[in-house]
Write a structure and sequence with these properties.
With 511 residues, the protein is mainly α. The chain is built from 13 helices and no strands.
Amino acid sequence: MAVLMQTSQQPVVSVRRARSGVRWFVVCVAAFVVAVACATFVPQQGWNPGHGPVVPHDSFPADCSLCHEGSDWHTIKKTFTYDHAAKTGVPLVGAHADAGCLLCHNDRGPVANFAAQGCSGCHADPHQQRLGRNCKDCHDERTWQPREAIAMHDRTRFPLVGAHAAAACFRCHPGAQVGNFAGASAKCAHCHQADFARTTDPNHVVLNFAQDCENCHLPVGWVPSRFDHPASFPLSFGHAGRACRECHTTPNSFTGLSTACSTCHSDDFAATSQPSHAAAGFSTDCAMCHDTRTFRTANWQHPGSFALTFGHAGRSCSECHPNNSYSGTSTTCSSCHLDNWQATQNPNHQTAGFGTDCAQCHSTANWHGATGHPASFPLTNAHARACTSCHTTPGVYTGLSTACASCHLADYNGATDPPHVSFQMSQQCQNCHNTSTWGAGNWNHHFPINSGRHSGFACFDCHNNPANRPAFSCIDCHEHNQQNAGSHHNGVSGYQWTTAACYQCHPTGHE
């Protein structure tokens, strides 16, 4: 019975103990919550320490609503503005204008004490005073990033040029991220040791090249290198800018290579067909005809006995030297131009008996328009006409008179101002005309009475006798002066009122 009673009471005791443990846990949690709440409780008009130290407001206006929202002390009114420059005399520029007030105004002490120290009053020096205390030398208030760093670096022993100017600071200054720029080496290998070691064309390590990269490379571009090839074989034009292995085909072997053109260009020599260098027996010394500017155009000078000028220049060799034969070629014009000579009809060279020496009339500058008229009658200006203009008998180019009248008699007979026939003027047209222009002859008056008051007269003013145009009259113009002239010639021996007498004493027309 006792056993049964003991057994039946055990479950009841366990339940009671469980309930008691739950109550104790709830009490503990509640106490913890109350403790935390009490510890972080901020009155409605209090200050949350998490926002920083309280700024003394002793000198501020008593009306809190000028700056704060009415519900708490933490929120500044959205419409609040404060002219820092006008109120304090210190303008806030750049990033300083966006900084929170408490960054400068806090419980450290009066702001003026720290402002007097300059930048270092607020900003810790990450450079550990290695770059001086004046932050404005590299930084400004707009951004903390350094400005004019390239120009600043130019004052050091290692100016930044080319690719060096684009490299990040930490690439050469491992401590740059923490403001440490000291101790950087100016030697190329300090940064480029890995480049030196992995270069295989050519292999710098195997060839024991110096680690002073600037001997061959420039900071504006790592490739190509500017290694100075020996002066005995300068790399100019087409030879320049090529990889070393193009000529130095044995890896990392750069000595003992022949400078003969055929070392590299024997295939070009053998493949050339215009003209065929091999068939023609040309020398393998390419420099005799080619240079490094262009391989395709030869600059070989044709013998001075037959210089290639104008129309002869720029032609392919095979035009005159067929079958790759370059010796024994005749220099006579007909050897190339006989077909032209035979086909020419204006004039017909064969019927006219012209020689086959084209150079007598033609030049290499222009095939058309012969220049070989006899010097006794040069074809200048208007006389530079087609042959048939004067040589009207087909195929006859000899025996033609050079007298002007042989071509210009009709012009002479038809001239009326003055009438050449009645004036009995010479038929030597060149006395008054030239080949530049036919009109307005340049004939000079035979007598000096054509100047002063006598200049500008028409021919017929003085030559007024149709039956005898060459004759002229003085008294016909001055007849109204006969009496006056007589009084002026009193005592003049042989005075007569005749044209001949007037001209005898007044050949220039002057009194």
